[in-house]
């Protein structure tokens, strides 16, 4: 069975398992990057949905202990509960759903002396716009392979991928998916 078919089924299975699109969007928002946090009105604006639909899902996820809430300047801020026993499992499932596991595997396979892979842009902030911005840092990177890789990855994960290559290490913001020095 081809990788594309396997991934497509995996993608479909998650949407079958989590039938609420709002819940899936919230899980992506908070579990793709544990530093992401937001409040009800901000989520309603970002998702273009009613506050009632989002409030219902936030309450369900908070009651289950998957999200935690805290008062922040007259607003309730929500974020992933990193102490929940299933935190790592949920994070990994969300990252697989987005194709980040395949992306990282393909980059590390033949890109050269990769030092870091950093997810930047909307997805790093938890907004799935179907565009993945990736910064690949290292020495002697195979920039010819990047064009082939871009097309292949886009077919595999059904998202647009934008690669930025940098020599050496970087200290820019974003979600570090791989760091040779840190062992991540």
UniProtKB/TrEMBL annotation:
InterPro entries: WH-like_DNA-bd_sf, WH_DNA-bd_sf. It comes from the Bacteria. It comes from Algoriphagus aquaeductus. This is DeoR-like protein with HTH domain.
């Amino acid at each position: 069975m081809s990788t594309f078919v396997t991934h497509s089924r995996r993608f479909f299975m998650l949407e079958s398992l989590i039938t609420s699109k709002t819940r899936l969007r919230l899980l992506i928002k908070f579990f793709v990057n544990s530093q992401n946090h937001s409040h009800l009105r901000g989520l309603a604006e970002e998702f273009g949905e009613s506050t009632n639909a989002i409030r219902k899902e936030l309450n369900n996820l908070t009651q289950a202990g998957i999200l935690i809430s805290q008062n922040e300047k007259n607003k309730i801020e929500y974020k992933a509960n990193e102490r929940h026993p299933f935190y790592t499992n949920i994070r990994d499932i969300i990252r697989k759903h987005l194709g980040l596991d395949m992306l990282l595997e393909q980059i590390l396979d033949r890109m050269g002396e990769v030092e870091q892979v950093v997810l930047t842009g909307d997805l790093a902030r938890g907004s799935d716009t179907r565009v993945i911005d990736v910064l690949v840092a290292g020495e002697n990177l195979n920039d010819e392979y990047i064009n082939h890789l871009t097309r292949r990855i886009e077919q595999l994960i059904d998202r647009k991928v934008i690669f930025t290559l940098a020599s050496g290490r970087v200290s820019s913001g974003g979600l570090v998916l791989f760091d040779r020095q840190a062992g991540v």
